[in-house]
Amino acid sequence: FAVTGFVLALVPLFFFGRSFLPSFNEGSFTVMVSTAPGTSLERSAEIGTLAERILLKHPNVVKTSRKTGRGELDEHGKPANASEIEARLAMKGRSLQDILRELRVEMAVLPGTIVTFGQPISHRIDHMLSGTTANIAVKVFGPELFRLRAIAEDVKAEMSGLPGIADLSVEQQAEISQLRIIPRRSSISRYGLSVTQVAEAAEVAMSGLVVSRSLEGDRGFDLLVRFDDSAKRDMASLGSVLIDTPSGVKVPLSALADIVSAKGPNSISRENVQRRIVVQANVAGRDLRSVYEDVRERIGKNLKLPPGYYIEYGGQFQSEAEAARMIGILSLLSVLAIFLLLYSEFRSFRTAGLVMVNLPLALIGGIIVIALTDRVISIASIVGFITLFGIATRNGILLVSHYRHLIREEAMELRAAVLQGSMERLRPVIMTALAAGLALVPFAVAADKPGNEILAPLAVVILGGLLSSTALNMIVIPALYIAFEKEEEK
Known about the structure:
The protein is an alpha+beta fold and 490 residues long. It is built from 15 helices and 17 strands.
């Protein structure tokens, strides 16, 4: 019966989803709202305000705060067309996924915007792992910007029909209006200037130059020198900006450079010296690993990339695969170490193997519990199995060591020693399981509460495994011990 139960428990294991971390419930959302590249700060702020009003109309959103744009020298610099909104939630007994589904529908009315939902911590984890703010990042690399954009749109089209894909978007890269100052070297040399001097003068006029710092109490302020805004109101105003020459003559910028209106890319992203554009998406309603595999299979089958272009995938699934591989190797080494320690204690490979029977018995309950809950295996679940193996092995040691004591020290007959030893060790085995299990019940019961996301999968695995291993331990181990010891006596 135990062997059959173990084999049957392994069947759903192959159909479980895979994820690096469990889905978080942080009690708030991070909403990224991006308008068309080149949108002014004022217009972007208006759209951000409209997005906040839509969010606040939802009964579960209690407060919002917004940042529009972010300085170019910031580690996470953002253009003026991007807004980041933090929305605090009051769950009111509702699930996070239901609230998120409703907000996605309501925010879809924003014209000409790309809206991406995340959470403060998971949002930053995604950014650290893949350089984007979404769960899955498909990075297209190649030399030509126009070809990159076309390939990215093809990738987006392939991903758009897949179940589980949400907040699908392509990195905003478009041709925007630019004002270019093209120096005329002959004119510059005629006035005894260099291209660098003209460029620096134009930069000071347009962007300003920090020349000193003012201290007021414990606060410091940079002193910035720049031209009045009227100097850069239009091309004519910019061309009339005066540049100092070594001779003391002031020359207008138009006499030294051509000022033209043109179009150019709003940004060029690079990774490992290669130009790249990103197609990103979140995952909703499915596990991350299965969605990633579907995305990779469809893109690999339907898209033929031209020479010099290639695709890389980024996201939490990479960390999940690496962590699962490492934990798997360490788990095998740990099981081997446990077996060797048991042999050094009992001086019998047969007895050590008997104690290790508790490991598959514990797996039965752990797998069944995952099948009854979210059907997703994360790193937290794997750690739960490893912890469970230690507790289950300890219960086996309690029984086997007492059997050996009764047989060798008190000279009892085998069957009588097993029966008496099992009854005498019933309470310690149950108390060992309860001591570990009762402490984890609050995490398992409140799995949907903020802060319990990591411990809940670990707790349910240990609880389920303790139920199966403790129950079967008191039946299977005594029967096997009688059979094994008889063989050893013969």
